[in-house]
UniProtKB/TrEMBL annotation:
The keyword Iron-sulfur does not apply. Pfam families: Nebulin. The keyword Repeat applies. GO terms for cellular component: Z disc. InterPro entries: NEBU/NEBL, Nebulin-like, Nebulin_repeat. The gene is Neb_4. Coiled coil: none annotated. Transmembrane segments: none annotated. This is NEBU protein. GO terms for biological process: cardiac muscle thin filament assembly. It comes from Atlantisia rogersi (Inaccessible Island rail). PROSITE patterns: NEBULIN (PS51216). One of its GO terms (molecular function) is actin filament binding. Keywords: Actin-binding, Repeat.
Length: 242
């Protein structure tokens, strides 16, 4: 029964052209030290060796820096004396408008690829997330919930499945009430048993007639009004409109 499963566990089928594999290959090529220094190694094999700190190399670097600095400042030197009288670029209307237009253009170009691709969703049918979503939808479906599921998503002899079955048996209403159905009709309680005596004592404690005494059954006499009550009555008579 488990021979096919044991054979399938040791075989892994991965397509060589999946996006994950292609991305891994590209990352491996980017971080490869051998590919990074391949051009330098090929140059060294051509028969000459030119060190990076040689005098001609250093002179060429210095000349390049000087020329680059000159070209970088050429436009600035030509524009000297032609600046407007604004303290900052934000005070110039043309510069502010150009900066605003540049921001709008950059935002449009930044969102262009998103707007073109937001309606195009490419998800493999057999992706793990799709399969998991289908399984979750099957589990929460009301139709499948009300009938016995025969499609197992895991092996029936796994430890967690066996533990779940035992938990279901313990929580099952039929199993829980099986002892009650077996004992129904065979019980017998005598008048002097502990349960009967306990019930009688509880009934006596909860008896309203024995617990409370009605006021009309008590013998009492009226008391004389206190001085503050007499003074209150006199004040009420004095301020009465009648």
């Amino acid at each position: 029964y488990t021979e096919a499963w044991d054979a399938d566990k040791t075989s892994i089928h991965v397509m060589p052209d999946t996006p994950t594999i292609l991305l891994a290959k590209a990352n491996a090529a980017n971080v490869s030290q051998k590919l990074y220094t391949q051009a330098w190694e090929d140059t060294k094999k051509k028969g000459y060796d030119l060190r990076a700190d040689a005098i001609p190399i250093r002179s060429a670097k210095a000349s390049r820096d000087i020329a680059s600095d000159y070209k970088y400042k050429a436009t600035h030197e030509k524009e000297k004396g032609h600046y407007i009288g604004c303290r900052t670029a934000k005070e110039d209307p043309k510069l502010s408008w150009a900066a605003r237009a540049m921001l709008l253009q950059n935002d449009r170009l930044y969102r262009k690829a998103y707007h073109e691709s937001k309606a195009q969703i490419h998800i493999p049918v057999d992706a793990m997330s799709v399969q998991a979503a289908k399984e979750c939808q099957t589990l929460v479906s009301d139709v499948d919930y009300r009938q016995h599921l025969h499609q197992w998503t895991c092996l029936p002899d796994q430890n967690d499945v066996i533990h779940a079955r035992k938990a279901y048996d313990l929580q099952s209403d039929n199993v829980y009430k099986s002892d009650l159905e077996w004992l129904r009709g065979i019980g017998w309680v005598t008048d002097g048993s502990v349960d009967v005596v306990k019930a009688k004592k509880a009934q006596e404690l909860l008896n309203e007639r024995l617990y409370r005494t009605r006021p009309e059954e008590l013998k009492f006499t009226s008391i004389t009004d206190a001085p503050d009550v007499v003074q209150a009555k006199i004040n009420a008579l004095q301020i009465s409109d009648v």
